[in-house]
């Protein structure tokens, strides 16, 4: 089993180091190879996704990814910005299905910004389409050499598009996931305004007919944003496009107490996957040793489950995380009165210790 390790920028290196530590104590036959990505790769090789990094990722069973980005790259031409690395990996590896579970750990109910009764027991799965939509529309930037903005121009544009096969395959993923859960899918769109999302809604409805046991409902994205903070437990599986999924998954993350807790998996049709925390590179806290490594550690668990067929090991990691939370250890982002504050490394060590028990 080969894992490509791409820590990236900001807190990426700190949190990935903790996940590696956890993977190593499992004593499974992994081969891990690390490469630069994002701003770190730009500094060393002049490109956020060097050919060698992409090749390594493509040749691996799974990619463990940290985070990319830093404000200091905001003035670079768009193709050279760190974010292009993750977008390029998603596109080049065909990682179209993004799983972003939002689970509220009982121990963290008080860390949520919502009332405990609204989030206790929360378990929703956001499935975000990841290789289409306005993120990859044409003719993005056709009128200029490299990017979508025109020096001195009066307008800029991006094009929203989805093809039938792109919608069909993500719809299947969502219905199949729902079959293993509470058998409910909410498809989020903006069909009242956008043609792309009327098309989306029609096709999801069509695919839904093949899953008679699953209850499908449709919701406009603005309403979905409201329902997520009003009554989040009404959702089971939420399926949506790339852009809406980006936004809604951040909102859903906060329900659970902290975005620092949320793992994600991005899969292609060969079950190759990229695993990363749902949060970003947080340059404001990078290097301070206070970032929460749990989202990355839980992403490593998802990697074991989905791409490496090591379900028992995945369960062990998740149980260890739960034990650590039971013991009252908290990084700053999930800290509340009466718990003990720890740093990134101590949190990783605690998970390792819990695994050994
Ligand atoms: C995410 C991030 C990325 C996205 C950025 C870093 C390109 O926000 O994974 O949610 O917009 O998809
Ligand atoms: Mg995002």
Polypeptide structure, described:
The chain is an alpha/beta fold and 357 residues long. The chain has 2 domains: 1-96 and 268-357, 3-Layer(aba) Sandwich (Isopropylmalate Dehydrogenase), CATH 3.40.718.10; 103-259, Isopropylmalate Dehydrogenase, CATH 3.40.718. Helices cover 39% and strands 17% of the residues. The chain is built from 12 helices and 12 strands. The protein has helices spanning 12-25, 39-45, 51-58, 83-93, 116-119, 164-179, 195-208, 221-230, 242-255, 294-306, 311-326, 344-356, and strands at 2-8, 31-34, 62-67, 97-103, 123-129, 184-189, 215-220, 237-240, 263-267, 273-277, 329-330, 340-341. A 10-stranded mixed beta sheet has the order 2-1-3-10-9-4-5-8-6-7, sandwiched between helices. Helix 1 links the parallel strand 1 and strand 2. Helix 1 packs parallel to helix 12, helix 6 packs across helix 7 (195-208) and helix 8 (221-230) runs parallel beside helix 9. The longest helix is centred in the middle third of the chain and has 16 residues, at 164-179. The two termini are 26 Å apart. The model has no long low-confidence stretch (mean pLDDT 93). Residues 69, 83, 86-87, 246 line the site of 3-isopropylmalic acid.
Notable characteristics:
single chain; 357 residues; Isopropylmalate Dehydrogenase; 2 domains; 12 helices; 39% helix; globular; binds 3-isopropylmalic acid; binds magnesium ion
């Amino acid at each position: 089993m080969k894992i490509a390790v791409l820590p990236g920028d900001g807190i990426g290196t700190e949190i990935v180091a903790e996940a590696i530590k956890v993977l190593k104590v499992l004593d499974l036959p992994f081969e891990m190879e690390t490469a630069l990505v994002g701003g770190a790769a730009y500094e060393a090789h002049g490109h956020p996704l060097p050919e060698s990094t992409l090749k390594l990722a493509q040749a691996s069973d799974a990619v463990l990814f940290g985070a990319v980005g830093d404000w200091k790259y905001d003035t670079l031409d768009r193709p050279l910005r760190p974010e292009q690395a993750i977008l390029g990996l998603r596109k080049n590896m065909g990682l179209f299905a993004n799983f972003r579970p939002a689970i509220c750990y009982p121990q963290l109910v008080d860390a949520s910004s919502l009332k405990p009764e609204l989030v206790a027991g929360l378990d929703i799965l956001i499935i975000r389409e990841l290789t289409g939509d306005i993120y990859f529309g044409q003719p993005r930037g056709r009128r200029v050499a490299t990017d979508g903005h025109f020096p001195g121009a009066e307008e800029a544009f991006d094009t929203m598009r989805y093809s039938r096969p792109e919608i069909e395959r993500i719809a299947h993923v969502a219905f199949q996931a729902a079959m293993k859960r509470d058998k409910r899918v909410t498809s989020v769109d903006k069909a009242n305004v956008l043609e792309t999302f009327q098309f989306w809604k029609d096709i999801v409805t069509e695919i839904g007919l093949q899953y008679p046991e699953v209850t499908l409902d449709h919701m406009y994205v603005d309403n979905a944003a409201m329902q997520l903070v009003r009554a989040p437990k009404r959702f089971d599986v939420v399926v949506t496009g790339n852009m809406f999924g980006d936004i809604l998954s951040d909102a859903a993350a906060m329900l659970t107490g902290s975005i620092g807790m949320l793992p994600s998996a991005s899969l292609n049709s060969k079950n190759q996957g990229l695993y990363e925390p749902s949060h970003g590179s947080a340059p404001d806290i990078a290097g301070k040793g206070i970032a929460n490594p749990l989202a990355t550690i839980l992403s490593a668990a998802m990697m074991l489950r989905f791409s490496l067929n090591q379900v028992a090991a995945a369960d062990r990691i998740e149980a260890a995380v739960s034990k650590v939370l039971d013991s009252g250890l908290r990084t700053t982002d999930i800290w509340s009165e009466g718990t003990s504050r720890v740093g990134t490394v101590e949190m990783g060590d605690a998970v390792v210790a819990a695994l050994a028990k």
